[in-house]
Amino acid sequence: MKIFKPFEELKSINRSTILSGWLIMLISFWVACSFGETHLFPTPSQVLAGFKSLWEAGLVVHIGSSLWLCTKAVLISVFISMVLAYASSIPAVKPTGTFITKLRYLPLTGLAFYIAILVSDARWIQVWVLVAFMTTFLTTSLIAMIKDIPEVEFEHAKTLGMNRWEILWEIVIKGRIDYVIELVRQNLAMVWMVLVTVESILAAAGGLGFLIKNNDKLGDSGKVIALQIIIVIIGLTLDFLLTKIRKLIFRYSNF
Amino acid sequence: MSYKVTNTLLYLDKVSVGYPYRDGNGKEQINLILKDVSLVEKDIIRDGFDSTGQIVAFIGRSGRGKSTLFKALTGLIKPTSGKVLITDMSTKAVDDAKEVGEGDVGFVDQKYTLFRHKTIYQIFQYALKNSTLSKADKESLINKYLSDWGLEEHKDKFSCELSGGQRQRTAIIEQMLTSKHFMVLDEPFSGLDVGNIEKVKLAFNRISNDDELNTIIFSTHDIPLAVELADSIYIIGHPEGVTDYSTIVKHYDLKQMGLAWTPYGEGHRALVKQIKEVVLNS
What we know:
- Chain A is mainly α.
- Chain A contains 11 helices and no strands.
- The longest helix of chain A has 29 residues, at about 60-85.
- Chain B is α/β, with parallel strands linked by helices.
- Chain B is built from 7 helices and 10 strands.
- In chain B, a hairpin with a 5-residue loop joins strand 1 (about 5-20) and strand 2.
- The longest helix of chain B has 17 residues, at about 195-210.
- The interface between A and B is medium-sized, with 20 and 27 residues.
């Protein structure tokens, strides 16, 4: 049986059959776990009702609020991370970037405390907590990306008589801009995951995090699972779009 | 064929290259790769020819320091001791030499590294960025190279969209456009099919005929090809009784031997045998 052999190439019909099989198993598992006295999940009909109810309660506004919060945080942290990572190629500034990468072990709660002291507006506290979180991880990824640039590319630039600033601009910044989009895509998944925690800081601003926390408190598991599904779908859509955008803008970006 | 040698173009004076490392006791030591490499290459003028560039080949077994020597030749690494001198093209004075620095010598590595985010046309434009030519002249020069080297229809392609041969030609032109007379090519024939090898040979001829001072330095494991193309061949390897560093163990001046610029024949075949013997013993 080909489908049980490692590294076998399958026809698309076979791949679709395998995928359908797994989906059926997943749904069956869900259904099986949603009945009985001590059921694990809400039933599919409860989740559907949850969707309907959330939609009627203005789900789109909350999605918009979460996306806007995420966008602001991502843009700021991409800017800070790029500056820190590119500057880390300068020996005198390198320790700054390295220090920021170590901060990724700092708990979010600790970070939120210091940000709350510095920022008075609650919505901006959320933004800056996300920024602080994403910046540490994105800077780490960007510095690793720069480190991974093959030595031959730098040597090639040197043989063309380029000075060190030209090398930084052409090889590292311009030459790897598509990698930045890819790293943002990877780190966005983490930001999207902690969004729930961060949005619970300020209930008045709404958002998917507020909704999920609120419904969790009320014990409405149908809505909680519906929101989980929505969060996953939006996350996957963002992921897909960033890959598409990268490939569309940068034809040479073939990874 | 009558010829005369004039000014010194390339001069290596007892060049040694090593990399520092720490031994078991934490003491810094030098891992010597090359020791006392010396050579002189002069400008060749052939009677009846407008320009005759120099073609120098380096042959040696793997791990004998050819790539390290090329990095020293191109100014990418500083020799631990000794000097690499080239003709200073910025002065009009004859025999004016300078120590080689980054950007003085063109280098085409084994992978034909190019900018990944530029098309062929943009690569050539960038290579000419410091040129004093007018915009129109730059464009016409680029178009001439594209057409002469069979890259016209690929000018809007990125490096990842090119074949190995196209990449190599692009890398060679890019270095030529930066107005360098010295070009080092690390194993330019490795992995190429028969057709592409012929194209590289043509490229060598073009570079050589382009300017009197043009000097191609290349390494190869293909001894017959080196004998066919080069007018000077250096064998790099371990000297007798030594295994921890390499140096030039033999030099063949094909001009003096009457084998340069002549059709491949019996003399070339005999030299191939000799070189093979020397390479195997070094």
